[in-house]
Description:
By secondary structure, the protein is an all-alpha fold. It is 71% helix and 0% strand. It has three helices and no strands.
Amino acid sequence: MKTKIFYISILALLISLPTEAQCAMCRAVLESEEGQETAKGINNGIVYLMIVPYILIGVVGYFVYKNKKKPTHIKE
């Protein structure tokens, strides 16, 4: 059962759809622009800022996992 969940998780991570991460006001202001380069830059910046908390939570989770896996007693 665990392998099935693992493979489904990997598949979900590999299949991604392009998304738009702009608020309504930012979109309205940036859509009036001709080149759309600024809109793409703002969108990429929002996605970047959205990823940082997930990376931090992952790092903290990794260290918690590693600390829990250590043996609690030491044999001499």
